[in-house]
Amino acid sequence: xEQGQVVVEAGKRITELDIEALNALGLxxxxxxxxxxxARGLLAALLVTATTSLYITRRQPDLLTRFRLxxxxxxxxxxxxxxxxxxxxxxxxxxLFPYAVLGLLFVGLIGTEFAVFAAVxxxxxxxxxxxxxxxxxxxxxxxxxxxxxxxxxxxxxNRYFFVGLVLACVNVVVVVxxxxxxxxxxxxVFA
Length: 191
Prior knowledge:
Blueprint: H1 16-24, H2 34-59, H3 67-87, H4 101-109, H5 112-129, H6 134-150, H7 158-179, H8 184-187
Helix pairs in contact: 2-5, 3-4, 3-5, 4-5, 4-6, 5-6, 6-7
């Protein structure tokens, strides 16, 4: 093969000869990205930890004396992040993940301001975990913030149903925004 020559054309079936050519050119070998992914996860975790520590010391210093509540909030945050990591496989649509659950739980436990802060941090982590997807960041961010702000009291269960309807509308709008300009019918999204 010469430089610039097409090895496999798009839309064509790949034959044994094509695979042999791809192997000979070193195109079938994937790079080991484990170290980069681990460093990326560690840096994101450190950034979230530092930001949360700064927020708590500046905006809610009384939380530092309530260790049980602090551990509960940390546990819920970790459960949501790990759940997304497990749930976000290639064969599972990420649109089905309940991104706003963190904010809705935090509203009842500590209040609206901290819940919005946590929803923003979760959205940033979701975006990083979803291969830098700005669409997933927007869904998690807008869903979390709108969910927190539209929940007017946690004393009645039917308020959560109303928030669920609002969140469904918000998520649909975000998906439509990111789908505009794309031919989603040809991409097999709604087929």
